[in-house]
Specification:
This protein has one domain (7-139): Transcription Regulator spoIIAA (2-Layer Sandwich). It has 5 helices and 6 strands; from the N terminus they run βββαβααβαβα. The chain has helices at residues 36-53, 69-83, 86-90, 103-115, 130-139, and strands at residues 7-9, 17-21, 24-31, 58-67, 92-99, 119-125. The chain has a 6-stranded mixed β-sheet with strand order 1-2-3-4-5-6, with helices on both faces. The longest helix has 18 residues, at 36-53. The chain is globular and about 35 Å long.
Length: 141
């Protein structure tokens, strides 16, 4: 079976680091794009294609230093769409990273956890920065 090609979007001051590939969906960083629709639409298209074709376990790794409301709506929409594909949702695990003391990010994680059917783990870390993202990515290979 053919899956979508690997999708990579490098981190910027306004947008998260995204790596999408069979078995792993990684989104970490700051999410305040000028136009969230333009930024997240290709990501949603990739994930829609992926969830329809891929069978097997998938690690979904999410962590935001900051995420605006419009971006959060896109993340929620994408996770909801994944949850509707029962075979995919059953084999997916979601890990939500948030910075120690950041109650807003913790609360967002709790809200998302209540809305999805996949296994959902929350991990508090000392600091959310590119070094942390690289460490998480290396550990999840």
């Amino acid at each position: 079976m053919v899956y979508p090609e690997k999708y990579i979007k490098e981190i910027s001051k306004r947008t998260p680091w995204i790596i999408l590939e069979p078995g792993k969906l990684f989104i970490m960083g700051r999410s305040i794009p000028e136009n969230p629709g333009d930024f997240y639409r290709p990501l949603q298209a990739w994930i829609t294609d992926y969830t329809q074709k891929y069978r097997g376990s998938t690690k979904i790794i999410l962590g935001f230093e900051y995420i605006n409301t419009a971006s959060m709506k896109w993340i929620y929409t994408i996770l909801r769409e994944m949850s509707q594909v029962k075979e995919f949702a059953r084999d997916a695990t979601i890990t939500w990273y948030y910075e120690e003391g950041d109650e807003d990010m913790k609360d967002l994680g709790l809200i998302l956890k209540s809305l999805v059917v996949s296994t959902f783990t929350m991990i508090e870390v000392e600091e959310m920065d590119k070094g942390r993202y690289e460490m998480v990515l290396a550990a999840r290979k």
